[in-house]
Amino acid sequence: MPNQALRLRWRERLRALGERPKVGVFWRSGSVTYRRDEFYTRLADWKPLIDSVEAEWIVLQHDLEPEEIASAGPSGAALRCLDELDPRNDMEGLAALMAELDAVVGPGSATAELAGAVDAPTLFLMPRREAYYGWRIADPDSGADRLYSRTRHVVAERHCDGASLFARAAVMLPRVLALREFG
């Protein structure tokens, strides 16, 4: 259970950003190697999603490189970095923030697992279907997760097809935001 005092602090901070839904995003793990790279995304690939959903996009990515935001082009201007959070070293603060967000979107990583564990509505992006994560999908139609009731898997139509991955996420995210909870 996230720290309630921290949750209140984040709730007030997010409320100050306005009425639009607050969506946390991250696009890679802290451990990306040649063999792991295909499981993650590049921020530049997020343009169709960021441009299609009216939201306050909150960056949850740790070890953020300055050129990553620039790589998103004009879509990068929609991203908010919260300087008061260190996503790598402040897990308690990250958990409290994610519990207050309207949704969290990102690939399989410790961040995605933490989002599910704090019961944040989460879209778990899967650039490729893997045996490890494939077993987690309880319902292929909805993408329901076996471990976390408010997590949904979004799977690319073809192996590492970012266009289909983000097109599917762009369809699913507004439904999640409209319902504010998963079925």
Kindly state the mean pLDDT as a whole number?
A: 84
What sort of overall outline do the alpha carbons produce when their principal axes are compared? globular
Named CATH architecture: 3-Layer(aba) Sandwich
Radius of gyration, in angstroms, nearest whole number: 15 Å
Sequence of secondary-structure elements: HEHEHEHEHEHEEEH
The domain tally reads 1
According to CATH, the fold-level topology is Rossmann fold
Q: Cα distance, first to last residue? A: 22 Å
Helical content (DSSP H or I, runs of 4+): 25-40%
CATH-assigned homologous superfamily: Glycogen Phosphorylase B
In total, how many beta strands? 8
Strand line-up across the major sheet: 3-2-1-4-5-8
Helix/strand class: alpha/beta
Summarize the structure in words:
The strands form 2 sheets. Strands 3-2-1-4-5-8 form a 6-stranded parallel sheet, sandwiched between helices. Strands 6-7 form a two-stranded antiparallel ribbon. Strand 1, helix 2 (47-52) and strand 2 (56-59) form a beta-alpha-beta unit. It contains 7 helices and 8 strands, in the order αβαβαβαβαβαβββα. It starts with a helix and ends with a helix. The protein has one domain: Glycogen Phosphorylase B (Rossmann fold). It is an alpha/beta fold. The longest helix has 18 residues, at 162-179. It is globular, with a radius of gyration of 15 Å.
